[in-house]
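Task: sequence design from structure.
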C-alpha cells in the first residue's frame, strides 16, 4: 500500500497517444487542474512544476504504465514526483461508485485522481521490477514477431525445394534452420549449382558450420541429386529466390539469438528468476512469458474473510437408516388400512390390501385339526387334537361357503 500522508495533490492522467487528460485533486477533494495535456516532455514538465510550486508534493497516477504512459512516468520521476499505477479493472469497478455512465477522458482522469486520494490501497507502486517486466514485454514481443517470421520463411523454402527437387528437400528439410544448410542454400540456390560445385568444395564450405556432419551431409545431398535427372519448370526462378530466403532466415535466427541473451539478462535481474527457471520445462523464454502474463503475484489479494476452518465448516448430513416413512416419493399417501398413515407412503400402499387386524366375527369359523396320536379318530373324538380353534385369516372359507360369493370390501362370504 502506498503511503499518501505527505501528498499535497493527486494528479490523475488518463493517458493517450497524442495527448492525455490531466485532473489534479487536493486532499480535501477540490479540483486544482482539469485540462487536456499534450504528450510532450516540455508540457509535462510545465504542469508538474506548477503543481509543485503551488501545492507541494505531487503524486502522479496513470492507468497504463507502459507504452503511451511511459513518458509521463519518466518525466515525473526525473522531477522527483512519486508515481503510482491504478489497474484498469480496478478503475472500472471504482467507476461504478461515481455518478454517470458516459466513458469520457475527463471522467476517467477524475476517477483516477479521486481513487488515489480516497482509496490509496487500490494503487500499485511502480518500481524497478515493473520496469524490468515492461522491458521484458517489449523484447519478448519482438522475439515473438521474429519467431513468426522465421516460420513463414522456412515454410516458403520447404515449398520451393519440394517443388523443384523433392529428394533434395527430404535431405535438407529436417535441417533447414541449421547454419550449414542455410550457408549452402545462400551460395547455391538450385540443384544444378550444387552439383556443379562438387563434393570437395561443399565439404570445405560446410565444415566450419558443421565439423562432424559436413562429409555425411554432402554424401546425402549428392545421393539425392542422383535420384532426379529431369528439370522441373520454375527451377531457374527458384535459383533466384532460394538464396534470398536463406539469407533472410539466417538473419532472423541471428536476431533471435541476440534477443535470447537480452531476455536472459533481464530475467536474471528479477528476484523470481531462480524460482522460475528451477521448475521443470521452464526455460528463459517461458520464464519471461510467465512474468509478463502473471507477474510476481503481488496483485493477488487475500479474500475479505478467511476461509472457514475444519471445525467451523458445516458437516454434511449423514443419511439415517432407510425407513418406509422417509423413502417414499412426495405426495403419495397410504390408505387407511395400510401399514402407515405417514404423508410419505410407498406407491403400492394406495392399493387395497384388505384388513390387517384380526377381529372376532360373530360367526367365527372353526377348522378341525386331526389328531396326530389317532389318525383314525373321527370328528367326534374327545381328544384335545380334534378341538377346533378360531381362524385368524378373514379370507378363509368356512365349511359350506364354497358356493357363496365373496364380499370384496370385507373379504368375507355373504
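Answer:
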Amino acid at each position: 500500500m502506498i503511503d499518501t500522508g505527505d501528498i499535497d495533490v493527486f494528479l490523475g492522467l488518463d493517458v493517450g497517444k497524442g495527448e492525455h487528460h490531466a485532473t489534479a485533486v487536493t486532499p480535501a477533494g477540490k479540483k486544482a487542474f482539469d485540462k487536456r495535456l499534450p504528450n510532450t516532455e516540455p508540457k509535462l514538465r510545465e504542469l508538474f512544476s506548477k503543481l509543485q510550486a503551488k501545492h507541494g508534493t505531487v503524486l502522479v497516477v496513470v492507468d497504463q504504465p507502459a507504452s503511451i504512459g511511459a513518458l509521463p512516468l519518466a518525466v515525473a520521476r526525473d522531477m522527483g514526483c512519486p508515481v503510482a499505477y491504478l489497474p484498469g479493472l480496478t478503475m472500472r469497478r471504482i467507476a461504478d461508485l461515481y455518478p454517470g455512465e458516459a466513458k469520457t477522458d475527463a471522467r476517467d482522469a477524475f476517477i483516477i485522481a479521486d481513487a488515489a486520494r480516497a482509496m490509496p490501497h487500490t494503487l500499485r507502486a511502480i518500481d524497478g521490477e515493473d520496469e524490468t517486466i515492461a522491458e521484458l514485454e517489449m523484447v519478448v514481443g519482438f522475439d515473438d514477431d521474429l519467431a513468426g517470421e522465421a516460420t513463414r520463411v522456412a515454410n516458403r523454402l520447404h515449398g520451393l525445394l519440394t517443388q523443384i527437387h523433392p529428394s533434395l528437400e527430404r535431405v535438407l528439410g529436417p535441417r533447414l534452420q541449421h547454419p550449414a544448410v542455410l550457408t549452402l542454400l545462400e551460395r547455391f540456390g538450385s540443384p544444378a549449382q550444387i552439383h556443379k560445385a562438387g563434393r570437395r568444395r561443399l565439404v570445405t564450405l560446410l565444415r566450419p558450420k558443421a565439423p562432424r556432419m559436413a562429409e555425411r551431409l554432402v554424401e546425402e545431398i549428392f545421393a539425392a541429386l542422383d535420384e532426379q535427372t529431369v528439370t522441373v519448370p520454375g527451377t531457374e526462378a527458384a535459383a533466384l529466390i532460394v538464396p534470398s530466403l536463406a539469407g533472410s532466415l539466417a538473419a532472423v535466427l541471428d536476431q533471435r539469438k541476440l534477443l535470447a541473451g537480452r531476455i536472459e539478462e533481464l530475467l536474471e535481474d528479477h528476484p523470481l528468476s531462480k524460482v522460475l527457471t528451477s521448475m521443470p520445462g521452464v526455460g528463459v523464454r517461458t520464464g519471461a512469458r510467465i512474468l509478463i502474463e502473471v507477474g510476481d503475484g503481488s496483485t493477488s489479494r487475500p479474500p475479505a474473510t478467511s476461509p472457514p476452518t475444519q471445525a467451523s465448516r458445516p458437516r454434511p448430513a449423514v443419511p439415517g437408516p432407510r425407513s418406509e416413512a422417509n423413502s417414499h416419493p412426495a405426495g403419495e399417501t397410504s390408505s387407511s388400512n395400510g401399514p402407515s398413515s405417514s404423508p410419505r407412503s410407498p406407491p403400492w400402499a394406495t392399493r387395497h390390501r384388505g384388513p390387517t387386524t384380526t377381529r372376532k366375527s360373530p360367526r367365527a369359523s372353526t377348522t378341525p385339526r386331526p389328531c396326530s396320536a389317532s389318525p383314525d379318530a373321527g370328528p367326534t373324538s374327545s381328544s384335545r387334537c380334534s378341538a377346533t380353534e378360531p381362524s385368524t385369516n378373514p379370507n378363509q372359507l368356512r365349511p359350506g361357503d364354497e358356493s357363496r360369493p365373496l364380499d370384496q370390501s370385507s373379504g368375507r362370504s355373504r
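The longest strand covers residues 31-38.
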